[in-house]
Structures are given as C-alpha cells and as structure tokens.
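User: ok so my PI wants both of these folded by tonight, can you help

Assistant: No problem, let's get them done. Here's the first:
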Amino acid sequence: MSDLAFSCFTLNGADAQKFLQGQVTLHVERLEGNTTRYTAICDLKGRIHFGLWLKKVTPESFEIVVTQDQAEEFAKHIRKFGAFSKMKLEEAGTVFPCLEGDSTRFTENSTDLVTWQLQAIEQGQAWINQTTEHEFQPQELRLHQREGVHYDKGCYLGQEIVARLWFKAKPKHWLHLVQGAGEVPAPAAKLHNDVQVVNSIAVEGGYKALVVAKPTALEELGLTVLPLPEALNGDVARPQ
C-alpha cells in the first residue's frame, strides 16, 4: 500500500467533547488527556465507516487522525452532523505513524510507513481506509480489547446494533493474524466466504495479514495463525 498516508484534524470548541461522545464508539469523557486511542464512527448498520485515532488535548480540544483517502469524506461527515455545535474542524496536514509500546503515535516528521504497517499488523492494530469502510463491526476488529469501544456509554451512530451484538450474540468472525505464501491479498479481499482481509503486507516468502475470519475457515485455507499480543488473545465475546 504505497499510497497509504494519514491526515490530521483538530476539533476545537465548547461542544467538541459532547459532539464526539455522540459519534465515536469509545467513551470520550473518560479518555485521558494526551492519550491516543484508535476508535470508530459507525454507520447505522453498526459497521465501521471511519476508523480514527483520537487524542484529547483538553475537553475542548482534540486531535483526530484518519487515513488520507477518508479525510475529505470524514470532514464532510463532521461538518454535517456538527453543524449546530459550538466547535470548529480544521485540517492540520499530513502526519506519519510510529509505534510506541503497543500504541501508534503520530508525528510531523517522516517515518517508514512499511515498517509501521508490519509492526501494526503484528500487534493486531487493524486500521480502516476507504477500501474497507462499511465492512467490519468494531467487535470483529477487537476494538473493545484495545479500549476503542465501550459498551457502557450513551448513544452514538450504530450503537443499538453494536450493543445488541455484544449483549445478545456471539460473533462468528473476528480478528486473526495470519501468514501465508504467494501474492499479498488486497484489503477487503475475501480469501474464503468466512475470511476477509483487513490489512496485509509482504514479508519474505509471502505475506502477513490481519483478517476477520471464522477459525475453522483458516484451517481449511492452510494459513498459519500467529499469536496476537496478550491483550488481544482473549475471547472477543462478552463474558457470560
């Protein structure tokens, strides 16, 4: 994905926190200052429309990073839904990712995108771009295990479906890290009816990828399932 790039926005104003609380899947009011979390804005079907890295500077000032191919659509969405809120969205320019510990941070200084992609994939840090929007539910990407979705907050877009899947159902497909041989599959590609690629990258002898899959389908394909970090190793379903 040589065309991968990231755009940073600032959202400032008295209503910024209240507005975001009604948009994203995480609990914005509880987000610690200067902490970056990957979260999502869903569509009405409970699937991720925009994936975004959210950083709270103060309750009236936020930094938001999205993939550059989603930037224009994201800005339109915020201005449409926030038309009557006391806040202002401004594009701050291109930023570059780097992994610090188990989280991604962004800087204005150029970084090696290929290195970051491989590290993010190995850490189970799936990201959404224009190709994969409207494809996956937050739980399928293990966002709740990364503090990117909370089930004890108020309403947001798609919340009814996201909550129902958590409280009344168990997902059949969820995020796995796999290694395979041959050509690198494209994001959103289906390797099987029950295996869909989220992110992928070439490695020696083949590729590594994050896929949303049913475990039995991965066995059928003969893919090597690699371990994810401990925090993402647990059952994605709600503890009974």
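One down. Here's the second:
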Amino acid sequence: MIALSFDTEEFDVPKEQGVDYDHIRQGMEVSRFGITRILDCLKENGVRATFFCTANFVENAPDIIQRIMQEGHEVACHGCDHWEPKATDFELSKLRVEKVAGREVYGYRQPRMFPVDEKEIKRMGYRYNSSLNPAFIPGRYMHLTTPRTCFMKDGVLQIPASVTPWLRIPLFWLALHNFPEWLYHRLVMRTLRHDGYFNTYFHPWEFYELKEHPEFRIPFIIKRNSGREMLCRLDRFIKMLKKNNCEFITYNELAERKIK
C-alpha cells in the first residue's frame, strides 16, 4: 500500500530565510502553480493521494480544492496559517476546510510536523494524525525513540512518515530531491516490504522553478532538483511503484484498514 501526501500550504520558505515576503499573496501563486503540476501528474498516472491543506490555502483556492476532490483525492487539515501555527488550529482549520470542501475531514497534520495535543485531535473528531517524522534530522526532528509505524494514542491513529527500518533514514521530500533515484527507490521498496505499507509527503512549492528565483534565498538541498526536475522524479517514482504492482490509497483508507 502506498499513501502519497502533499502538504498544501502557502509558500513561506523565503520568510524562514529572513526574506521580506508576502506568504499569502505571493506564496499562494507559487503553491497554485505547483499543485497544478502535481494533480496533472497524478491524473496521468491514475493514482490517488491525500492533500493536507491549510485553511489559508483552501479559502484562497477553492477551485483547486474542488479539483482535488473531483479527481478522487482526499482533503485533510494542515492548520490555518502555515507560518504561524496556533493551539486553536485543530478546531478552526477543520471548520474552515470543511466549509469550503463541503464534506467531513478525517485527518490532521501539524505545520512542520510540530507536536500536537492528541486529546484535542480526538475531541474534534479526527480519525488520524500524521504529525510525526520518526527520524533524527538536526535542527528539525529528534524522534529516534518514537514508534516508526502506525500506532494508537489517545484514541487517534498515528501515521508517522515512513523511514527505513534500521537506521531510520528519512524518505520524505528532501530525500527524493537529494538521493540518487536508484537509491531512493531501493530504500522505499525495502521499507515497503518490511512494513507492508509506505507513506511520504511533498509540497507544491517543490515543483516550482525555485532555482530561477535567487531572491528567495532557498538552501541548495531544497532547490536542488526542484521544479520540472522534481516533477519528473515524482513521475518516475510513481511509475516504479506501479510497475511493482503497488496499490495507492488515501490516508483515510489506510487508517480504516489499520483501525479494524
């Protein structure tokens, strides 16, 4: 089982680099461009995914949200404002996203995968939480002792991002940017055989031509293989998985199978 996901947010990486940048107006333009490329790729390959959306993105791109749902993908919550996550986001993002989507939302992922209050997640009616990257990434994540596969906590299914079984090598978006593709594919297949499923996440702005915008001050490991190069990498990755007869499912479908 393959669960692809995309953190669908307003592009705010330049602000992390100290750039005076309007992450709502300018950031939405970047993300809209990237999400269109992603949706076209998924449609061409006939696979479905889960889109963890900020309330800001949903309210500024209702047409994109409709396309996501019409093409069989899942919409989940990713807080309200990606740049300034707040404790009330669990509740407000669900209300705001469901209002635009017109359907119930079952999953949550905190911006930057920061910790969440599981009791609040449960209270708001979420079925699963995917806010954990069980790896050691200096300056970002220190989770070497947490479970690396699905587990229940306070009545909510936790769906950590997939990492390799032994050294916990992270297999998220930065890995596909920077690893040789043959190595990334091999590590994914090894993890899939070990765990019985694989899930990972990307962002729409990775598929924008970041290298053409030095004013963003994007670090090399992020802008490397971005834009069309990243689109081709995603396409080849999906095709490799399909060649190996992998089934693509949404996170909610994964949760339903794990909770039974």
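The mean pLDDT is 92. Strands lie at 2-8, 50-53, 74-77, 107-108, 128-129, 136-137, 141-142, 151-153, 156-158, 198-202. Good luck tonight!
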